[in-house]
Specification:
- This protein is α+β, with helices and mostly antiparallel strands and about 220 residues long.
- It has 2 domains: about 110 residues, no CATH class; about 90 residues, no CATH class.
- The chain is about 40% helix and about 20% strand.
- It contains 4 helices and 7 strands.
- Strands 1-7-3-4-5-6-2 form a 7-stranded mixed β-sheet, with no helix packed on it.
- Strand 5 and strand 6 form a beta hairpin.
- Helix 1 packs across helix 3.
- The longest helix has about 45 residues.
């Protein structure tokens, strides 16, 4: 659902200019697009997954460029360590987030330095850590950049920027801005409903497959 769009910044700005003629600069509009992308990613709860293996004696690990500590939804660590012949990680348990001012008493993670995550206690072997986080959108810097959102929801960018334009300047048009905000909210609702339906279908198929596996084992 959230593949990079083929729509460029220029295409979005051209359409906005047609819908609501204005005199704002491209730099100003790209700033509003970037602000809008942050809002969209939050409203759609766009998430990503990242995994790494711990190393004995190493407490800090790099995070992906589109992730920061405050965007991590939750993190889990395997109960078993990797061996040369066995990749069975066992069960996974949730890692507790610690503020650096807190006293750490159980397995957890904390904010490292410059885009890293710290693991407590310091690992003594190689375990698997899975991180689930709210993804940061890629910022646009030129007219040729693609909008990092599914083509079906590029209008979200347009609606929000249009609402900002309508509310800007010496004569803000509150009524027009509210119309664009309503269009934005309706499309967000549609996108989230579609995501929930797909998740329910996936869960149903997964449960059915697991039930078949259990039945075959019994047979």
């Amino acid at each position: 659902m959230y593949n990079v769009s083929r729509t460029t910044v220029k295409q979005v700005l051209d359409d906005i200019q047609i819908r609501l003629p204005h005199t704002y600069t491209e730099d100003r509009l790209m700033l509003w697009i970037n602000e809008t992308m942050k809002k969209i990613y939050k409203d759609l709860a766009i998430q990503e997954y990242y995994s790494f293996e711990t190393t004995k004696g190493q407490k800090l690990y790099s995070l992906p460029s589109d992730c920061s500590i405050d965007m991590i939804k939750y993190a889990v660590i395997s109960s078993k360590a990797k061996s040369q012949t066995n990749y069975d990680w066992g069960e996974f348990s949730k890692l507790k987030f610690y503020d650096l001012k807190e006293t750490m008493t159980e397995q957890g993670y904390y904010d490292g330095t410059e885009g890293t995550i710290g693991i407590y206690p310091m690992p003594i072997d190689s375990k698997k850590v899975n991180i689930y986080y709210h993804k940061k959108p890629k910022m646009v810097t030129s007219l040729d950049d693609n909008i990092e959102i599914d083509d079906n929801y590029v209008d979200l960018v347009k609606y929000n920027v249009l609402s900002i334009i309508a509310m800007s300047g010496h004569n803000p048009d509150t009524e027009l801005a509210n119309e664009y905000i309503l269009l934005y909210n309706n499309l967000v609702q549609k996108a989230n409903e579609s995501k929930n339906e797909n998740q329910q279908k996936y869960t149903s198929i997964r449960d059915e497959q697991q039930a078949r596996v259990k039945w075959r084992r019994r047979g």
